[in-house]
Task: structure prediction
Amino acid sequence: MTFPHFTDNREGRTLAESLREHLTALCGTAPAIDVASAFFSVTGWNLLADELDGSPRVRLLLGAEPQPEAARPQSQPGDPPEPEFTEQQIAQGLVQLDTALRQDRDLLPFDAGTDAAVRRLLEALHGGRVEVRRLTRRFLHAKAWIFRTADGGVIVGSSNLTAGGLRHNLELNLGLRDGLAVPRVGTWFEELWAGAEPFDLAAFYDRLMAEFPPYLIYLRVLLALYGAELDEEAEESGHGLPLTSFQQHGV
Result:
């Protein structure tokens, strides 16, 4: 059985490829899978969608990743004391995580392949086979894959569940199949999972499937085409479009 003992996304050997081979080899046992990742993307999930569809349960643990040490803010006079200061930083990190998830969603390609990938992900999320929680009390910097079967092992390293982490970035991921560390990694995940909060990841992508009236889309296209000209006219005239009092109320 091929097992990814070492992957760094160099020399054509990516973590995505290694995971696909390992999951294919385990398909007879159909293992449940636990994943810890500081970030998530549809493109990353889609790299492994075929293999993950064979798992009866996938638990995905997300969290706010801490800033690099050099950029990490230091407590200043007037800031709250610990642990409130760190809790404040974590809260800001969670907001940044939500913002990044929306930005990544909004920049997805507008094509049939992406549409199929999003629908496939939503089916797994809404069907309950994929459960997502988010760690809110601490930063989550660790990344791990845990295969819940006798010979599944664990992979621990630096790769997020994104296309960059699984294929493009220079990463370092080490796999273990036996030894004391393997059950300890499983226990580590269970402890974090128990303290995490349910997270509605599907809500970020349901919006892509929403239907809008054609006339509303037409108006949005007009705004995209001529919105800047309207702003320029308003700036030149010193005021916006002239409205009567009842029209202002309507606006």
Observations:
- The first helix runs from residue 15 to 25.
- The first strand starts at residue 6 and ends at 7.
- Residues 214-250 form one domain.
- Residues 218 and 224 are 10 Å apart (CA to CA).
